[in-house]
Amino acid sequence: METPEVAVGDILLCMDDSDSRNLRCHCEYRVVDINGHGNVKVEKRFDIGGEFLPPFEHYYKPDRFKLVEANKANVVPQVKVGDKIRMLKNSPWWKKGDEAVVSELEEGESVRAQFRDGSLSLFVFANDCKDKEYLSAGSFEVIEPATKPPLGVMPKNMWKEKRCQDLVRAIHEYYEAGKSPDAAWLCELSDLCRELA
User: CA spacing 20 to 30 A to 137: which of 119, 161, 172, 175?
Assistant: First the structure.
């Protein structure tokens, strides 16, 4: 059986209740904790009304289960430089409601953000991170995505330099082929070189 990737809050269906006094096949369970070995602590869904019973004390291997429904709160929002984010939970580093602007991303694993008071913080995306500042699913939301300014036009000098390169390339290719380049190209190249000098 394939081991599902699970996160806290996911709903699982038990597929293997062997050697367990608590688990029952084809019953639904919700993940309440995941230990360092990747095993899950679950609470059983009470069949009537869909409520959950208190969690079992034991941890189980996730390959006993099949993922039924992923907890949407476990999806970390995608951010990009310039996005404005709001913190949804208190932490030692920020208060619920604090807002920050993403100022830097490092290989998709961490984000540097600047708060309104001017302080900078580096956060690591993680669900379980000790002694580090971290952003996990449900800890923040993007409230104002960054907007890209219109592209505009290429600066005139850049355009002229590019035109010079194109003219030099074309003239060189004509000479290499044993042909005479267009005289207008030579005049234009001469004029552009004077303007750019």
Answer: 119
